[in-house]
Specification:
The chain is α+β, with helices and mostly antiparallel strands. The chain is built from 6 helices and 5 strands; from the N terminus they run E-E-E-H-H-H-H-H-H-E-E.
Length: 185
């Protein structure tokens, strides 16, 4: 076990796959109901990540910018701690709602408004989502607030926790060129 992490019913399995090609990739799948994150890297890159984890004191995540993954992961973390550390759960739930705001526009092909205009504009494009966000902002109970954040996560990103996805293979700069998997053009 690394860092301050404690296993729970919602924990996932992290697998590192070391290969000779000069690309990295990340995959997430369920195996017999167990969520697994698979990090595919050449040996030198795997050493770099593991050294970074040791220095930073926490696992390094690649491709975390995917909105569905980030929103789902934050929500899952909030539900993990809501009974034991409600303030942390509330902080995570705040981030779920915050991270869902921009995609609620982007997924519709709209520009994201300035932050001071975002709620007013959200009311114009999706009054039900706006009502959920306002309800979340006014909710004092951490458990209920996390529940509302979950409704927002599901409405915007279609997830409430771990979701299956995979990144495209990404060439590693400075590494010896290699052939990418067949599914890439």
């Amino acid at each position: 076990m690394r860092g301050q992490s404690s296993p729970s019913a919602a924990s996932d399995l992290d697998l590192y796959v070391i290969h000779e090609a000069a690309y990295q990739q990340r995959l997430q799948y369920f195996f017999s109901g167990v969520p697994a994150e698979i990090f595919v890297n050449p040996e030198i890159q795997a050493h770099t990540y593991l050294d970074s984890e040791q220095t930073d004191g926490r696992p390094r995540k690649t491709c975390i910018s995917r909105p569905r993954y980030l929103i789902g992961s934050l929500y899952e973390d909030a539900t993990d701690v809501v009974d034991h550390v409600p303030d942390t759960a509330r902080l995570l739930a705040n981030r779920v709602v915050w991270e869902a705001l921009a995609p609620s526009f982007q997924f519709r092909g709209l520009f994201v408004p300035r932050l001071k205009d975002i709620l007013a504009r959200l009311r114009e494009i999706d009054s039900d989502l706006h009502a959920l966000v306002v309800a979340f902002l006014h909710e004092r109970d951490a458990r209920r607030a996390v529940g509302i954040a979950g409704e927002i996560a599901e409405r915007v990103a279609g997830v409430r926790g771990f979701c299956e996805w995979e990144s495209s293979p990404k060439p590693i700069e400075g590494a010896i060129p290699a052939v990418l998997p067949d599914n890439e053009t």
